[in-house]
Specification:
heterodimer; A: 369 residues; alpha+beta; five-stranded antiparallel beta sheet; 23% helix; elongated; B: 267 residues; mainly alpha; MetI-like fold; 2 domains; binds adenosine-5'-triphosphate; binds magnesium ion; transmembrane (chain B)
Chain lengths: 369, 267
């Protein structure tokens, strides 16, 4: 499904569509975005994920050309576009509030880009018709934007952005204004259209589920810095930093001390007792150093194995397909353990002593404390 | 019970005040309209009988026609210049957040606050210092200065309601600045500009103080003519003329309301 159709002229399939090269942006003296490097392949859907204020919108606006970065370059295809204004970059944008032109009909909105570029009336109308069919709004061509629902408005905004045959598509918080059911529909719809047209897409979101479910790769930002840029499974299973590990999904944080460090694995003595092997991204841990070990609830199991660390069950919560036990370690740390629930098995009673261990060593990750 | 009574007396008080205000606003207009249909020779209210004679007299009052034409011409020119200059000024002021823009804003607004008589006198002195005799031109310039604030104010207000992402969106779709202005900015602020132009027209049409100083002897202006006629002989024709003006204004307001939502803009 990575074939580029006529939508993505100028970006060879599989080649680079967009490079963000060492981009830094400062508003006055405060740094909003710092030394970001992204290399985005043609046809990819990339999500920029991060908490509020981390610089997602700033980065998107730099790519679009609305603000000029303080340092670094933006490269579209093979072309450095830093000196091109937003109207000459041929980038399609769907704004968070859709920004449909209120005085123009749906068809006129979609035809706006081609009209601005001086494309003839007949060709413009045919293209508008095709795009409105594509987003299933052909029957509403003559309405005004305010006569449409939120989801319909978003589809118009998408069709309008696609009408300029953009080199890439940018989406700013595309689903934030939609209610929950509609959001899922639109996520599927946009993913479908993106696959169908093969257009390279960058999407801003602060919703990790949305990022993980829709994107081919996720760029996690924190305080203007790029924490990790990788496939969703990689982000989830092999996070590079404590921030990514705790921001994406949930993680138990246990403190301990490094006993030995060999390359990107380390042996750690937990304060809760027990030793374990853990991944050490970048191999930055030195022996003797204090560290934080992150373990996802579903990467833990309760066993009789004496190698696990001792804990006492505090509470069990059956959550349909899984059961989550809250246990307390010897050092007083609360830990969540999530296991598949088999029908008929009873919850472990409060006060039951158990041993807890990771399912496999590379699912534990240690970071400098 | 007690609460009901309080609510009732509150609403009663508000109602009474509202009715009084309405009477104060509407009654004079109504009285002029009624008197203009008098069959007598005086402005006495209530009239002794009714007829259309003063409207017939108005038909033949060439001096008033002449003055009305002058006033209309000056108001049309002043409105045209105010709309062009005021819109440009409004665009400049609202695009910039610099101190100079704020100062300019204040400057454009000052004719609204300065006593118009003082402005009339000072511009008369200014024009004569320049060696320009009073003429229809000086009159139009003077009217434009006092009318331009209405257009500036309405344009700035309309622009501040314009969502800046619409302009960014237009740019991202490949539109240059001029194209964006023509297809997005202008259509969206046009009702505001028209509302400003309408008020400018009305305020030029019944402006007395500036006209007093800046017209030449040959350029008779309607409000001044009306005052002089009333002063001399309490002429009932003026009441008929007032009736015509009132009807004319109401019709114009209704047209503007239809196209620009005038009342919302003035609120
Ligand atoms: N025009 C501006 N002037 C000064 N500082 C700004 C400006 N816009 C953003 N910032 C600052 O830059 C940082 C990044 O802002 P940005 O809007 O990119 O965050 P974001 O990741 O989009 O957040 P959110 O999820 O809340 O939209 C923030 O600290 C913000 O306060
Ligand atoms: Mg944002």
């Amino acid at each position: 499904m990575q074939t580029a159709s006529n939508e993505t002229q100028g970006t060879a399939s599989g080649g680079r569509a967009l490079v963000v090269d060492a981009v830094t942006h400062r508003y006055g003296s405060s740094t909003a975005v710092e030394n970001i490097n992204l290399d985005i392949r043609a046809g990819e859907l990339v999500a920029l994920l991060g908490p509020s204020g981390c610089g997602k919108t700033t980065l998107l606006r730099i790519i679009a050309g609305f603000i000029r970065q303080t340092e670094g370059r933006i490269i579209l295809g093979d072309e450095v576009v830093d000196d091109l204004g937003p109207n000459r970059r041929r980038i399609g944008i769907v704004f968070q509030n859709y920004a449909l032109f209120p005085h123009l009909s749906i068809a006129e909105n979609v035809a706006y880009g081609p009209a601005a570029q001086g494309i003839g009336k007949a060709e413009r109308e045919a293209e508008t018709k095709r795009l409105l069919e594509l987003v299933k709004l052909g029957h509403l061509a003559d309405r005004l934007p305010r006569q449409l629902s939120g989801g319909q408005q978003q589809r118009v905004a998408l069709a309008r952005a696609l009408a300029i045959k953009p080199r890439i598509l940018l989406l700013d918080e595309p689903f934030a204004a939609l209610d929950k059911n509609l959001r899922l529909d639109m996520q599927i719809e946009i993913k479908r259209l993106q696959r169908l047209s093969g257009i390279t897409t960058v999407m801003v979101t602060h919703d990790q589920e949305e990022a993980l479910s829709m994107a081919d790769r996720v760029a996690v930002l924190s305080q203007g810095r790029l924490e990790q840029f990788a496939a969703p499974t990689q982000i989830y299973d092999r996070p590079d930093s404590l921030f990514v590990n705790t921001f994406v999904g949930t993680a138990n944080q246990l403190s301990g001390q490094v006993l030995a460090s060999d390359g990107d694995m380390a042996t750690i003595r937990l304060d809760a007792g027990a030793e374990l092997r853990a991944r050490s991204p970048g191999g930055v841990l030195a022996s003797g150093q204090r560290c934080t070990v992150c373990l996802r609830p579903e990467h833990l199991e309760m066993t009789d194995d004496p190698a696990g660390f001792a804990a006492v069950v505090e509470m069990g919560l059956p959550l349909g397909a899984t059961v989550v036990h809250e246990v307390r370690g010897a050092d007083g740390a609360g830990i969540k353990v999530s296991e598949p629930r088999r029908a008929g098995t009873a919850l472990r009673a409060t006060g039951t002593p158990v041993r807890v261990r990771p399912l496999s060593p590379d699912l534990a990750t240690a970071y400098p404390a | 019970m007690r609460r009901d009574w309080e609510a009732f007396s509150f609403h009663l008080a508000i109602g009474v005040i509202a009715v009084l205000a309405l009477i104060l606003l509407v009654a004079p207009t109504a009285i002029v309209l009624i008197v203009s249909f008098t069959s007598g020779f005086s402005l006495r209210f209530p009239p002794p009988g009714y007829s259309l004679r003063w409207y017939v007299a108005l038909w033949d009052a060439w001096q008033l026609h002449f003055a009305a034409m002058n006033s209309l011409k000056v108001a049309a020119w002043a409105t045209f210049l105010s709309v062009v200059l005021g819109t440009l000024a409004g665009l400049g002021i609202s695009r910039s957040s610099r101190l100079s823009a704020k100062l300019m804003d204040g400057l454009f607004m000052s004719p609204l606050i300065l006593p118009a008589l003082a402005f009339g006198l000072s511009s008369l002195m200014f024009f004569s210092a320049l060696g320009l005799p009073v003429s229809p031109l000086t009159l139009i310039i003077g009217h434009t200065v006092v009318c331009v604030p209405y257009v500036v104010r309405n344009t700035v207000a309309a622009l501040s309601q314009l969502d800046p992402t619409l302009l960014e969106c237009s740019a991202s779709l490949g539109a240059g600045k001029v194209y964006t202005f023509r297809r997005i900015t202008l259509p969206l602020i046009r009702p505001g500009i028209l509302a400003g132009g309408f008020i400018a027209f009305m305020s030029s049409f019944d402006n007395v103080p500036v006209s007093l100083f800046l017209r030449d002897a040959a350029t008779d202006m309607l409000p001044i003519r009306m005052w002089q006629d009333l002063e001399g002989k309490l002429d009932v024709t003026i009441a008929a003329l007032s009736g015509v003006l009132i009807v004319f204004t109401i019709a114009l307001i209704m047209v503007m309301e239809r196209f620009t939502g005038l009342s919302r803009r003035l609120a």
